[in-house]
């Protein structure tokens, strides 16, 4: 029976979508729903600094893995390698390889995202640089995106942080806003 878990879950997921309606299915958004799952479970090993298995799941790189191989197959969540390695009981193949498994809830979100086409918004290349806050403290980081009045920065440690644009120096604020305009 173990081999049927994937198809059964897929069927239950599809039934849930049918019962709850299409608006529920459309509610899965990459940046709000999918990216936090990738950040907490995948990006430690599959990022710009460390592309294990030649796989980079950073927002500006993930598109190359969608539909171009077996990692993420739009419309085919149970056939997508990403889902299979998260659900396997084989400790040598399981992802993430260490620590706790990806929760069933998070896997359901990823499966729904893939089943709905695995869409990702166009994301600009991160802007590497030194950012200065109003106190003159320098922050070495890559600007990943702008969310409202927050600059999303990836620090050299690999940690992602949200920093208020208003707390940056005027020069850094101008760089952030210019990059954000070009990214649109």
Describe it.
This protein is 36% helix and 15% strand. By secondary structure, it is of the alpha+beta class. It has two domains: 87 residues, no CATH class; 57 residues, SLA1 homology domain 1 (SH3 type barrels), CATH 2.30.30.700. The protein is elongated.
Task: Describe, in short, the structure shown.
The chain is of the alpha+beta class.
Main features:
single chain; 184 residues; alpha+beta; SH3 type barrels; 2 domains; 6 helices; 4 strands; 36% helix; elongated
Topology (elements, then pairings):
Layout: H1 5-20, H2 22-26, H3 30-41, H4 81-87, H5 104-115, E1 127-132, E2 138-147, E3 150-155, E4 160-164, H6 170-183
Q: In terms of quaternary structure, what is this?
A: single chain
Using only CA atoms, what is the Rg?
19 Å
Count of all domains: 2
Which percent range describes the beta-strand content? 5-15%
Structural class: alpha+beta
What is the terminal separation in angstroms? 49 Å
Widest beta sheet: strand line-up: 1-2-3-4
Unreliable residue runs = 15-25
Overall pLDDT, averaged?
A: 86
Number of helices: 6
Helix proportion: 25-40%
Give the biggest sheet: 4 strands, antiparallel
Order of helices and strands: HHHHHEEEEH
The rough form would be described as elongated
**Total number of strands:** 4
């Amino acid at each position: 029976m173990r081999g049927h878990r994937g198809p059964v879950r897929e069927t239950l997921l599809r039934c849930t979508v049918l019962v709850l309606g299409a608006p529920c299915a459309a509610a899965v958004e990459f940046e709000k729903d999918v990216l936090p799952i990738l950040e907490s479970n995948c990006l430690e090993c599959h990022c710009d600094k460390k592309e294990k298995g030649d796989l980079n799941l950073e927002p500006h790189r993930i598109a190359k893995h969608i539909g171009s191989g077996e990692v993420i197959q739009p419309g085919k969540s149970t056939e997508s390698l990403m889902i299979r390695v998260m659900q396997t009981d084989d400790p040598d193949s399981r992802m993430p390889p260490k620590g706790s498994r990806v929760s069933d809830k998070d896997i359901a979100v990823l499966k729904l995202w893939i089943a709905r086409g695995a869409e990702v918004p166009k994301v600009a290349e991160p802007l590497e640089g030194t950012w200065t806050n109003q106190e003159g403290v320098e922050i070495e980081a890559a600007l990943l995106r702008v969310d409202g009045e927050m600059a999303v920065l990836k620090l050299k440690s690999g940690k992602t942080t949200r920093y208020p644009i208003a707390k940056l120096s005027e020069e850094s604020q101008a760089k952030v806003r210019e990059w954000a305009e070009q990214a649109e």
